[in-house]
Amino acid sequence: MKLINIEPKDNYILRIFLDDDSIVDFDVKAEMERIPCYKPLYDSSLFKQVKFKNKRIYWSDQFDFHLDQILERGHIVNFDKKTEVQ
Q: How far is CA 11 from CA 5, 19, 44, 58, 83, in A?
């Protein structure tokens, strides 16, 4: 499983799209509160510059999360395909 897209949302949530069609919302704010070195990500312009590669999201060498962490602390997003807008 690997990342195929990432979308910064309001309130420091990242919506992460995986190659198995899973979608995970990852609350980066919870991690910023828990781990002091992530506090610079409160700068919304920096937060929105998130990138991804294979199984890692990152902003720089200092700020990153591995897919294992994301899956452990994230929440699966369920869409009702009947009501999903095309």
A: 19, 25, 9, 18, 25
Q: Please answer whether residues 57 and 16 qualify as being in contact, where contact means their C-beta atoms are separated by less than 8 angstroms.
A: yes
pTM of the model: 0.85
Span 37-61, pLDDT tens digits: 999 999 999 999 999 998 999 998 8
Sheet containing 3-8: give its strands across.
3-8, 13-18, 23-27, 75-76
**How far lies 62's CA from each of 7, 20, 37, 58, 81, in Å?**
20, 28, 8, 8, 38
- For 63, the 3-state DSSP assignment is coil
Among candidate residues 38, 45, 43, the one with its CA nearest the CA of residue 65: 38
DSSP state letters, 49-62:
T-EEETTEEESSSS
